[in-house]
């Protein structure tokens, strides 16, 4: 199972929007996708679903159709994880819905983590709960790829989420705070990876398969960069120039004594801030690159929609190349998309 966590302990870089649009673009290009909302703030679920549907999924009392509902028996001491409900967002895209109640299990996850090194069965069951739920749901959904949204912190929930991740994509903004976030994130990822590698041999065979906890760095996505005449504005250029060094030193643990080449091979792609499109996309409950004239995307907005599509298409293609995601479905061609858009405008 190829599972990709989008992770940066610096909040506000546009991580959830990135996961949402990347998931939809994977589906647009023919991949079967399972998105997993592992942020207790549930921002991905809030972005993807209507309020009326969320009210149904988050009633008073138990929440059996959320991620918390799938792991609750284990953490409540009444059983083990159970199959998760996968909310259908599109023909190929499903979502395991998040839940604010996930915060309740943070202490248990924290307590059991060091006990994995002692080979305790429950410690492994607790630490791999998210992975086992995702794996079963991905198999049932026949997913080509699992995309994981997590909160901006280095807590026990995110550690369990990263144990479930085969790959990690780091969204960053060109600012001081993202650089500081990288400095915290890199050493923490390496420590989690090393601890899990030490614990794995101690898991009893009766527990069945275990996640590798590879957390393989895929690269970083530069978010919301500002440009003028095709070049970064002065305010951002300073920090943008330092990101390649910070990524190598902090995430990869490399020493950077030489000049980093441009373009940086660890930069997966740059995603602009499509400010004018996001309000329309939120209203329409669809990704920005899928907006049509009926959604209010007319005139210059249509050009922005097309550029947004091209941005996310390039991003997904780069992620596919770096992770080895496979798909048997042929993606729609550019001419087919243009014909569809023309039909909506009443063009021949």
From TrEMBL:
Top-level taxon of the source organism: Bacteria
Domain AAA stretches: 3-198
Entry keyword set: Cell cycle, Cell division
InterPro entries: AAA_dom, DNA_Partitioning_ATPase, P-loop_NTPase
Chain spans, region Disordered: 329-348
Keyword presence, Cell cycle: yes
Pfam families membership: AAA_31
GO biological process annotation, one example: cell division
CDD domains per the UniProt record, alphabetical: ParAB_family
Residue ranges with Basic and acidic residues bias: 335-348
Protein name per its UniProtKB record: Cell division protein PomZ
